[in-house]
Amino acid sequence: MKKASNLLLSKFNRQRSIKAAPLLSRAYIFENSPSSSSSSQFHSTGRHLQCCAKTRGLIFKLHQFQTNPSRNLNTLRKLREKSDLEEAFESGKTSGEMFRVFKDMEACEDPEKALSFADRALKVLDQDGKPSLLVAVALQLMGSVSYGLKRFNDSLGYLNKANRLLGRLEEEGIANVEKIRPVLHAVQLELGNVKTAMGRREEALLNFKKALEIKEMTLGKDSKELGVGYRDLAEAYVSVLNFKEALPFSLKALEIHRKGLGHNSVEVAHDRRILGVIFTRMEEHEKALEQNQLSQRVLKNWGLSSELLRAEIDAANMQIALGKYDEAINTLKSIVQQTEKDTLCHWEKFADSKRCLEIACGNLDKKETVSPIEVAEAYCEISMLYENMNEFETAISLLKRTLAILEKRPQEQQSEGGVSARTGWLLLLKGEVPQAIPYLENAVEKLKDSFGSRHFGVGYIYNNLGAAYLELDRPQSATQIFAVAKDILDVSLGPHHADSIETCQNLSKAYSAMGSYTLAIEFQQRVIDAWEGH
Q1: Which of 79, 171, 224, 469 could cross-link 477 (Cys pair, CB 3.0–4.6 Å)?
Q2: What is the chain's Cα-based Rg?
Q3: Is the dihedral of CA 394, 399, 405, 408 positive or negative?
Q4: Which range has the top average pLDDT, 29-43, 384-398, 412-426?
């Protein structure tokens, strides 16, 4: 989800079924990755990545926005600018003049009006039907404005057309390559943003990589902007859980910024924060904590209190993962002292914890129409705390409220899939199997669109879906689903990974339930062989 953005992909929390069989996979909350830097090239991402082993109930007040006393004067000034620009556009004689005026209007006008002027500009620029760079730029701007209006299909159409046109201009030598590249870079970025918003993240990565390749050709190897580009691509890989691919780009960003800006640079601190997230997801917690501590020093020196607070929360989660519970408690106590109100959920005092969470939910209810995505994320976090207390009913209720918000926003498809998966998983734990199946089936469809059909997260959900079918005495359906899950996990994790072995075990049980004992024994033998080699 987004704080101004999306749902971070929390560390997948491994949970075992409360039943003996079949084995359920860990439940996932998929959250979108962010871009930390204000100069991020990926406009569709704005959330700071967090380290999420189970977040221990830190609920922070939403930002309060103060009104600007000079707003009325600014509004009058903008209205005058609008009038002047409209007049200039109407009197434009050449395509170049009209296009310059349009670009000025885009900067100060509402998107609907900007799109209208872009359309008019395109008709003028494209009158003769000949390919030109100006037509490509107009299409790119129309795609950008449509994206801002959340008209993703329209935006994709304009941007794809611009992309094809730029390719033709380059192939036929109609325009100078040096002039084409900046426009092509913008088009590739916007294509990545739109596909991300549509849940097509794997496709988006290809566009982001092309955009970075253009930067590499046009900028110096030590350019700060190139460093930001490397970091942004690393974050894009993190958003699809591909941490191994993310790592080298994150390291390149750190090398460039450390060399050009010094160890005490804010950019270096952001790079280290991303590295901390990547190392955490790779379960290299000592390295993650080292990067986090180095990042904290810089943030403290620069007085960046809000970002420092996030880094300290990350550090607490890393300490928990390393079993350093006393250090984690001290870190969290320090965090509480820095916040406006003590809202730490006491781990051992469940009554106090529940009261704290009830108050938090009451406050969030009032904010739902104003900041729906932020509220949805908070509901998810609170639901995980209720889950820790074995309050499954309340946790499920909060997840359903989260889904009600996300279902209205197509750009949150990945988040919707993750929340749906967790809802189905909790319903399975409660024994409400028929109710769980629609949520798991919905999660599969949403996450296949976001990550691709062969992603290991999809494999986990298939495994849980197979367990649900087996519980309902539908062994044939269960066998088919377990087989799909096994294929995915064998490829993505390897056949000797613990979760791949468990899925093979489930497949053996499904064949046994069907009376296909020869196949059941065959897969059970595979399980034995795999554990022996584990």
Answers
A1: 469
A2: 26
A3: negative
A4: 412-426
In percent, the amount of the chain with pLDDT more than 70 equals 73
Both tokens of residue 80? 């005058």
Measuring CA to CA, which residue among 203, 192, 139 is closest to residue 167?
139
Cis peptide before 34 (omega within 30 of 0): no
- Token pair of 270, please? 């952001």
Q: Distance between CA 92 and CA 440 in Å, rounded?
A: 57
- Token look-up 């996030």 returns 310
Q: How far apart are CA 192 and CA 213, in angstroms?
A: 14
Higher per-residue confidence, 81 vs 288: 288
Strands (E), 221-282: none
Residues listed for the chain: 534
CATH number given to 454-533 = 1.25.40.10
Instruction: For residues 47 and 36, give the distance between their C-alpha atoms in angstroms, rounded to a whole number.
Output: 7
Q: d(Cα 186, Cα 184) in Å, to the nearest integer?
A: 5
Tokens (6 digits) for 348: 């051992």
What CATH fold (topology level) applies to the domain 81-218? 1.25.40
CATH topology of domain 220-342: 1.25.40
> How far, in Å, CA of 69 to CA of 309, rounded?
30
- DSSP states along 43-83: TT--PPP---SS------PPPPPPPPTTHHHHHHHHHHHHH
- Identity of the amino acid at 430: K
* Cβ-based neighbours of 298, under 8 Å, separated by 6 or more: 263, 264, 265, 266, 268, 269, 272
Torsion, Cα of 406, 10, 348, 327 (10° steps): -140
Superfamily of domain 345-452: Tetratricopeptide repeat domain (1.25.40.10)
Q: Phi-psi category of 273—alpha, beta or left, where left has phi over 0 and alpha has psi -120 to 50?
A: alpha
Token pair in block for residue 112: 């609907």
The span from the CA of 271 to the CA of 257, in Å, is: 8
Residue 42 DSSP SS3: coil
pLDDT digits (tens, 9 = 90+) for 336-386: 666 544 444 444 455 555 665 666 666 666 666 677 888 788 788 778 878
Which amino acid belongs to residue 408?
K
Residues of each domain in the chain carrying CATH 1.25.40.10: 81-218, 220-342, 345-452, 454-533
